[in-house]
Design a protein that fits this description.
Two copies of one chain form a homodimer. Chain A is α/β, with parallel strands linked by helices and 456 residues long. Helix content of chain A is 38%, strand content 24%. Chain A has two domains: 256 residues, 3-Layer(aba) Sandwich (Aminopeptidase), CATH 3.40.630.10; 158 residues, 3-Layer(bba) Sandwich (Glucose Oxidase, domain 1).
């Protein structure tokens, strides 16, 4: 009896905390779903600002727009952080066709980010189809020299998490040109990183690595339907020719910015919790999912805290990173400054997997913290948030190296992500208001719990 | 030591069963994602057959198409079950406008299923806006007589499960006309059951109940944007007028069919496990989500079992029910026949919540069975299926009354469902191939486990 009485106060405190947390999460979700600017911000960012490739006018507009919106929230501080970014410009729309016994069949392609242009008159050459970079070695210079290498390994449909299939495929896009150049290829085309069969070519970063500039070759993505067609036609006639023309260009690096806003912590202003996404997008669309969604959700975390009058113990900072897509300079610069000024980051959360129904989080932390965080799962159950796993979190928060930092990435439903990723259909209409808002609420809930109960 | 040895064989058996089940589920999911007809069936059903309102030519085509496809699967039996269904025809596209100080503003409406027509010249009347049926009583006959009652209680955005918001709202659509007629209203218009603001009016069943025919009044849905506009204009001018015209008509009941296919059970052919959806749709679109998705997923359960060469112990029967939308006669007929022939149904699973990413199931069963089923949850974890709850399952399997039957409903992500439900945008392009296939795999997995381990 004594024992029971002894434990009662502690039990009562825990129960009180649990009820308080349940109540707070309920208020957060309700605010996100009924009274948040999240969706209208995305509308503006997508439809008024538009695409935001690093160094573009759109990116500059995006900086100005989000800074202005953060200023309207009554935060303690809103500022820009200078960062130099690459400037790559697509130029004229690319053209490509299959030339098979004098029949031209136009196929949709787009230059990969960072690619060089073709000669003005384009490139016409025979095509050699491969399923991997490794296959180049088997084929050797004799079979590759003077040809266009066509990488056509599809994303695996059988993985439940589509990000896994992307990871298993993207080397073709990122390093395909560099490797094919070593075997004398004159260009490469890569099957779009898309699980669906459609007519959208998907761009994305590629790198020539340490290849001498004189050896650079043009590289482009072809739509999945285009890839299927080309592969079929190659089976019928391995000597067919492919024409491609693109006029993309590299310029000198230009000045751009990370956009930052913060609410000062009431107890530990020196401890910083970051929430963010990346403000830059590819140029083919307005990047509503990648990563307009992550930006407005991150802004909304601070919006919600202000609206429900939650005063965080630690400093909550939203960071809209510049240049995730083709360089990652925003994330690197942010870490550089944080290190130089001895800032103490205890937590970082990134949303960069699209504005789809949230399912959970991935975490980078030690086991003790993971166990602690996992204990919060029941609080998320009413909101159908169920997946807490260890794993990669976000490219922009990746450089952060504070000693005891816990990192997290929002995990939305991944099934439709690669239908839109880096393609012309990554547009506002592809984002559902409620799914976007539920993501923001889920992020705000994790930020709240972390702010309350910290790390071990 | 002895004790441990004693338990080892049982432990080993359980472990073996678990591994076998893990393996089977893995094979089921892989088959669904790489080698299923599910999506191409839906393409045909949506784009070749089209809308399938009970009694329509489309419904008849749907019966013929699905029967033929089931026949191609090599099942033990495929047949049609006769069922009489109502025939209601929309007729000419409806027109409506707000007439405010001689300015006409056209708004999108559609007749509710089962509504009568307006006079040929339409109806013009003042409008009284209410938020509930109950409010009619407060207003009384004086304020309602001769007017159009405008039901404008929106779906609540704050509920996580959108079905809950639908349930809290749909009385306005289903019984609104009947109740308003009692107060002398000349017609009703109902805010569409849609969480999004857009221009699609959403139809759906309504009933005059036991109202004398002479008192029937026309009733229509108005798009959510239209409802917002009308409400705003009413605040400015409560005497504005509304014009509506619709020419829908009732005909005598016609003969239609449930489409049924089955694999005979190898051990208990007399025990029947049903999986199904409803083949009829509303007439405004092809009903890809409601419930083309449920039909092709159910067909795919049997397709997958055939492809992986799984021979069920119990009889597995797919039933594509006719007339869920405006009568439920297919479900009632199926139960009537089952009862008359003393069939023993042990399990029924319906998919009628759209072809979105599956999240879990709802179950109607006793606690012992629910506990047993819940123990299967870990097997579903790799597929992100996490929500096993008690609750309503499906309108078509609802009439089934076998003594010991367990019923289940597939629960897909619900956020986007009411963007499309009963509206002109419930079309094939709104369904994602992978999400649809994951639903089929999830259903097949539950059917498999139930077939293996039965009920208590």
């Amino acid at each position: 009896m004594k024992k029971i009485l002894f434990f009662l106060p502690l039990f009562s405190v825990l129960l009180h905390a649990q009820n308080k947390d349940e109540q707070t999460l309920s208020t957060i979700y309700k605010t996100a779903l009924t009274n948040s600017k999240c969706y209208s911000w995305l509308d503006d960012l997508s439809n008024k600002v538009g695409s935001r490739l690093s160094g573009s006018e759109g990116a500059a507009k995006g900086v100005a727009y989000t800074k202005q919106q953060l200023e309207s929230l009554g935060l303690d501080k809103v500022y820009l952080q200078e960062v130099m970014v690459p400037k790559w410009v697509r130029g004229e729309k690319e053209t490509a066709y299959i030339l098979d016994k004098k029949t031209k069949t136009i196929v949709p392609i787009c230059a990969l980010g960072g690619s060089i242009a073709t000669p003005k008159s384009g490139i016409t050459a025979e095509v050699i189809e491969v399923k991997s970079i490794k296959e180049l070695e088997t084929l050797g210079v004799d079979k590759i020299k003077g040809k266009i290498v066509f990488y056509n390994r599809p994303m695996e449909p059988e993985n439940i998490e589509t990000g896994k299939s992307y990871g298993n495929c993207v080397d073709q896009r990122y390093a395909g040109a560099k490797e094919a150049a070593k075997f004398g290829a004159v260009a490469t085309i890569v099957r779009s990183m898309n699980l669906r069969l459609d007519d959208f070519p998907h761009t994305g970063a590629q790198s020539y690595g340490d290849l001498p500039k004189s050896q650079y070759i043009p590289t482009a993505a072809i739509s999945t339907n285009g890839a299927e067609l080309l592969s079929k036609k190659l089976k019928e006639n391995s000597r067919l020719q492919f024409f491609m023309k693109q006029s993309c260009q590299h310029y000198d690096d230009v000045l751009s910015y990370n956009v930052i806003g913060e609410i000062k912590g009431s107890e530990h202003p020196e401890k910083i919790m970051v929430v963010g996404g990346h403000l830059d997008s590819w140029d083919l669309a307005d990047g509503s999912h990648d990563d307009g969604a992550g930006c407005v959700q991150s802004m909304s975390v601070l919006e919600i805290f202000k609206k429900i009058n939650y005063k965080p113990k630690n400093t909550i900072r939203v960071v809209l990173f510049m240049n995730e897509e083709n360089g990652g300079n925003g994330g690197k610069k942010y870490e550089e400054v944080a290190k130089n000024t001895n800032e103490n980051h205890i937590f970082a959360l990134e949303s960069d997997s699209g504005g789809f129904s949230p399912r959970g989080f991935s975490f980078e932390c030690d086991d003790a913290n993971f166990t602690k965080i996992t204990n919060w799962k029941p609080l998320f159950e009413p909101y159908l948030i169920h997946s807490f796993v260890k794993g990669g979190t976000g490219a922009d928060i990746n450089p952060l190296t504070s000693k005891k930092i816990v990192k997290a990435g929002l995990k939305p439903d991944s099934q439709r992500y690669f239908d839109h990723h880096h393609a012309a259909n990554d547009t506002f209409d592809a984002v559902n208001k409620r799914e976007l808002e539920l993501g923001a609420a889920t992020m705000a809930s994790l930020m709240y719990l972390f702010d309350q109960y910290g790390i071990d």
